[in-house]
From TrEMBL:
It is an enzyme of class 5 (isomerase). It comes from Diatraea saccharalis (sugarcane borer). This is UDP-glucose 4-epimerase. Homodimer. It comes from the Eukaryota. It catalyses: UDP-N-acetyl-alpha-D-glucosamine = UDP-N-acetyl-alpha-D-galactosamine; UDP-alpha-D-glucose = UDP-alpha-D-galactose. Residues 5-259 form the NAD(P)-binding domain.
Amino acid sequence: MYLFQHSIDCVIHFAALKAVGESMQQPLLYYQNNLLGMLNLLEVMRSHNCYQMVFSSSCTVYGEPEYLPITETHPTGKITNVYGRTKYFIEEMLKDLSAADEKWNIISLRYFNPVGAHPSGMIGEDPTKEFTNLMPFMAQVALGKKPVLTVFGSDYNTPDGTGVRDYIHVMDLASGHVAALNLLSNNHIRLKVYNLGTGKGVSVKELVNVFEKVTNTKIPLKYVERRLGDITAMWADATLAKEELGWTTRYSVEEMCTDFWRWQTMNPDGYPKKSKTSVIVNGKS
Ligand SMILES: O=c1ccn([C@@H]2O[C@H](COP(=O)(O)OP(=O)(O)O[C@H]3O[C@H](CO)[C@H](O)[C@H](O)[C@H]3O)[C@@H](O)[C@H]2O)c(=O)[nH]1
C-alpha cells in the first residue's frame, strides 16, 4: 500500500529472530521467519521496482575463525547454530540474486557484538523473551534483578581465559547503516559485504571490569563450563568499511557500558507498557 503512495529508494532489513539457543530448539521458526521473510521482502521489492537493500548480517557467518582479525574474505558457512545458518543462507541467496539480475544493489553488514544504547537513555534494548547476551544480563545483575553473572568458560586460550568478542556501540552500528545508504545511493556495486566492528577484542572479564568501574557497581561472578557452540575469540578487521564506506567507530567500551547503564537505570522494566485507553464520558471513566 505504502509503496504505491511513496517512491521507495532503499530498504534496510533489520527484522529477524536472533536468539542462538532458541534457534536450535525451534529451527522451523527461524527458517520460516528469517528465510521466508527475506524471500517475501525481495519479491515485494522487485514487484515495486526497488532494488536497493542494506541487510543486517552477522559475524556469526564466519564460524570458528581461522585467523584474526577477521576480514570479509574469511571463509563462511561452517556454522554451528540455526540462527547463524539463516544469515549465511540469506547471504548466499543475495549472491545468486545479484548475479542473476544486475539491477540489484545490496550491502550486507556483518555486525560483530552490538551493545550500548542511545546516549539519551531513551532508546535501548527491551527483550520480550528471556535473554542470554552478556551486557543485558550483566546490567540485570547490577540492578539486583539477577543474583550473579555466570561466566561461560575460564579456560579459553585467551589472555585471561574468558571469551573474547568485538563489542560495538549501537550508535556506531547506526552510522554504519547511514554510510552504507550513502554508498548505495551514489554507486552501483551489485553486492558487497562489510564487517562492522571496532577491530578490538575484549574479554568477558575485561568487559565486566569496565562495567563495574563506570557504573560503580559490583557484579558477582560464577565461573562455569563453556557454553555449547561458543567460539574462543573473534574480532573484526574493519579496514574495508573504513576505505569504502568512509566509516569508523567512535565510541569506547566505557561509553558502551555507560550508555547501556543509563538506559537500564532510566527504564529498569524496559519501555513503559501500553496502558489501556480509558474513555471518559460525562466525567466518569
Ligand atoms: O551470561 C553470559 C552471557 C555471555 N557470556 C559470554 O560473553 C560473550 C558474549 O556472549 P553474547 O551471548 O553476548 O554474544 P555472542 O558472542 O554469543 O553473539 C552471538 O549472538 C549475537 C546475537 O545476540 C550475535 O548474533 C552474534 O553474531 C553471535 O555470535 C561470550 O564469550 C559468552 O560466553 C557469559 O560469559 N555469560
